[in-house]
Write a structure and sequence with these properties.
Layout lengths: L14 H21 L1 E4 L3 E5 L2 H15 L4 H11 L8 E8 L4 H10 L7 E5 L4 E3 L1 E2 L14 E7 L2 H8 L4 E7 L2 E6 L2 H8 L4
Antiparallel strand pairs: 1-2, 2-3, 3-7, 4-5, 4-8, 6-7, 8-9
Length: 196
């Protein structure tokens, strides 16, 4: 899988080529995803996306759905490519994970607005709150969604501090889900690579 900085139909593999590539490289992609995964408290999981994770997601969808026509390929690119960070931000898929159905229903009702209370705090700088669900509204008056897409936008000085090794906290200050944690060094190193 070649990273080009921009996902287009021309830069994706054919279904046949991807099937061969996948047999060899799937463990590397899984390790990359795991490195960029943050568990915040017991129930919030943030999967920070990259060109690698999104290319893999698109290729997987094309493989599973057996999509090989241009229009279908473009639809998958349009759906997922906006999740690739663009040099000034981190983008993540945020999942609220509750195994018990009744608990999930109750908590999603209590956690309305939780996606807007997610933050990143770079050492020496103010908190940056998530910009959530730019694609569509994912909650209503009764509950929030179990999946959100969030973006954390950084100033040039914050980006420089992250790249220079500043400590970074991640958290949530929603009334019903107060949590924060130091981002592990290995994860931070991978995320710092998203910034220009």
């Amino acid at each position: 899988m070649q990273l080009t900085g921009r996902i287009t139909a021309d830069t994706l593999m054919s279904l046949e080529a991807y099937t061969k590539w996948r047999k060899v490289h799937k463990p590397e992609v899984i390790a990359h995803r795991k490195l960029r995964s943050v568990q915040l408290g017991e129930h919030i999981h943030l999967q920070f996306e990259s060109e690698t994770t999104i290319r893999y997601q698109i290729q997987e969808m094309l493989r599973i759905e057996k999509i090989f026509e241009e229009e279908g390929i473009e639809q998958e690119i349009e759906a997922y490519a906006p999740l690739v960070p663009d040099g000034t931000n981190w983008k993540a898929t945020m999942m609220l994970e509750y195994t018990d159905v009744n608990e999930r229903k109750r908590e999603l009702a209590r956690l309305i607005g939780v996606e807007d209370r997610m933050f990143v705090e770079v050492e020496g700088h103010a908190r940056v709150y998530a910009i959530a669900d730019e694609d569509l509204d994912r909650e209503n008056d009764e509950k929030t969604s179990a999946v959100h897409f969030v973006r954390f936008e950084f100033t040039p000085t914050m980006r420089a501090a992250i790249q220079a090794g500043a400590a970074v906290k991640m958290g949530c200050d929603h009334t019903h889900y107060p949590a924060h944690m130091q981002v592990p060094v290995e994860t931070l190193a991978s995320l710092a690579g998203d910034l220009k």
